[in-house]
Design goal:
Strand order of the largest sheet: 2-5-8-1-9
Structural class: alpha/beta
Number of domains: 2
Distance between the termini: 17 Å
Number of helices: 14
CATH topology of the largest domain: Rossmann fold
CATH superfamily of the largest domain: P-loop containing nucleotide triphosphate hydrolases
CATH class of the largest domain: Alpha Beta
Number of strands: 11
Shape: globular
Helix content: 40-55%
Radius of gyration: 21 Å
C-alpha cells in the first residue's frame, strides 16, 4: 500500500474512532479498574466476535456489559444459566392463543444487542448449543419461522473457574466459537478502596449517558475492516498459529509432547480481526506486531489442547503461548 494511502487511512481511522474516548469516559463512571475487560469487550464488539470471561464472583462482569449497553443505547439481556434451563427459555417458543385458535411466536431474551450468559457452564449441552447456534448463525428458528438477530449482537458468557460441582464444561469445539477468552483478576488495593467508597456513597459519579448509537458501532465495524495489515504481519500471525500445530518446525520441539492439538483456522481469522480492532482502539490505521502480541493470549488460550504430560508438569496454555511469542520471529 502506498505511503500516502496509509496516511489518508490513518487520518480517517483517527476520525472514525473518536467515539472510543467517550465510551471509556462513560464506563469509567461506574466501573473501577478492569481496563483489560472493557478493552476486550470493545474488541469483540468492533470485530463481530463474542467474549468468554472467566473470573471469580464479584468482579463486575455483569456491571461492565450492562454499562457498555447503556453507553451505546442498546438492548441488554441477562440470562442466568441453571441446570433446569431449556433452549426455549433462551430463544423463545410457540404459544397457543385460544382466542384466535392459532400458535404465535413468543421471542426469548436472545433478541437483544448485548447478551450476558451468566455462568454458561451451569446449563446442559442442549442449552449451550442453542446459544452457540445463535452466536454463529446470528439467527434463530422458532417453529417454521427464522428470525435474524439485530446487530450489533454481542454475547458475553461468564464461567466460574472454582466450582466444578453441578457444571457442564463447554466442549472445545464450542469454546472455539468465542473470539476471546479473557481471565479476570482482582482489582488493586487502590481500586478496591474506590469501589468501597462508591458503594457506600462517599464518592460521586455520574449516570451513564448514551454517547454512541448502534448504527455508529456498525459503521465503526466497517472502518475496522479497512485497517491496513501488511503481508509481513499476515505471515507473523500464520507463524504463531502454525507454531501451535507444528512447534518442531519453529525450533520448539520441547512443546511437541505438551500440545494435544493446536489452534484452528478460526484462530488465524480472529487474531487478524482482533489486531485490527485493537489498532482501531489505539486510533491507528495500520497494525504493528505489538497489536498481535497484545491480543494473542486471549485469542489462543482456549484453542490449544494440552496433553496429560503438560497438565502433570503444571504447564498452562499461557506458558506455551509465551514460549511461542518469544521464539517466532517478529517482523
Amino acid at each position: 500500500m502506498h505511503t500516502l494511502d496509509i496516511e489518508a487511512l490513518n487520518k480517517q481511522i483517527y476520525l472514525d474512532s473518536a467515539f472510543v474516548t467517550q465510551l471509556y469516559e462513560q464506563t469509567e463512571k461506574v466501573i473501577v479498574g478492569q481496563p483489560v475487560m472493557l478493552e476486550r469487550l470493545l474488541i469483540g464488539l468492533l470485530s463481530k466476535g463474542h467474549v468468554l470471561l472467566e473470573g471469580l464472583p464479584g468482579l463486575a462482569k455483569t456491571l461492565a456489559i450492562k454499562t457498555l449497553a447503556q453507553a451505546i443505547d442498546a438492548k441488554f439481556q441477562r440470562i442466568q444459566f441453571t441446570p433446569d434451563l431449556l433452549p426455549a427459555d433462551i430463544i423463545g417458543t410457540m404459544v397457543y392463543n385460544p382466542g384466535q385458535n392459532e400458535f404465535s411466536v413468543r421471542k426469548g431474551p436472545i433478541f437483544a444487542n448485548f447478551i450476558l450468559a451468566d455462568e454458561i457452564n451451569r446449563a446442559p449441552a442442549k442449552v449451550q448449543s442453542a446459544l452457540l447456534e445463535a452466536m454463529q448463525e446470528r439467527q434463530v428458528t422458532i417453529g417454521r419461522q427464522t428470525f435474524q438477530l439485530e446487530e450489533p449482537f454481542l454475547v458475553l458468557a461468564t464461567q466460574n473457574p472454582i466450582e466444578q460441582e453441578g457444571t457442564y464444561p463447554l466442549p472445545e469445539a464450542q469454546t472455539d466459537r468465542f473470539m476471546l477468552k479473557v481471565k479476570i483478576t482482582y482489582p488493586t488495593k487502590e481500586e478496591e478502596r474506590e469501589i468501597i467508597r462508591r458503594n457506600l456513597g462517599q464518592a460521586n459519579y455520574g449516570e451513564v449517558e448514551p454517547v454512541v448509537s448502534p448504527q455508529q458501532i456498525l459503521k465503526a465495524r466497517q472502518s475496522v475492516r479497512k485497517v491496513y495489515m501488511d503481508e509481513k504481519i499476515e505471515q507473523y500471525i500464520l507463524d504463531i498459529v502454525f507454531a501451535t500445530r507444528q512447534p518442531e518446525h519453529y525450533g520448539l520441539s520441547q512443546l511437541t509432547p505438551l500440545i494435544h492439538y493446536g489452534a484452528s483456522p478460526r484462530a488465524s481469522i480472529n487474531l487478524a480481526l482482533a489486531a485490527k480492532a485493537y489498532a482501531f482502539l489505539q486510533r491507528r490505521g495500520f497494525i504493528i506486531p505489538e497489536d498481535v502480541r497484545h491480543i494473542c493470549t486471549d485469542v489462543l488460550r482456549h484453542r490449544i489442547g494440552l496433553t496429560y504430560e503438560a497438565e502433570a508438569e503444571n504447564i498452562s496454555q499461557e506458558d506455551i503461548i509465551t514460549q511461542i511469542l518469544n521464539t517466532v520471529e517478529v517482523p
